[in-house]
Model the fold of this input.
Amino acid sequence: QVQLVESGGGLVQPGGSLRVSCAVSGFTFNSNSMTWVRQAPGKGLEWVSTINPGGTNTVYADSVKGRFTISRDNAKNTLYLQMNVLKPEDTALYYCARLLGDWSMDYWGKGTLVTVSS
Done:
């Protein structure tokens, strides 16, 4: 059974930092690209970042480039998103997902809520 479980969300002040995690089970984690997607309140899904299976290549949305860092620990089957210099507009439910070759996503977690507010 495939499971993706996000954790680490919470309330943080503008300018602060937070790291969210995604624990994966049920498929071969180190053979798959992984991605973070977010959904702000009342808005649609927004792709945030993607990492290749080995963790050597990463890409970011312009809205988070230079502030967020995606990484993975293949020994722990865990995906991370380090978020720095957080802004109120980063407030969203953050999902991890498995990325397929055609850039579609088949397996998703239930999300972790990040709220940036003073």
Observations:
- The chain is about 0% helix and 55% strand.
- The CA atoms of residues 1 and 27 lie 8 Å apart.
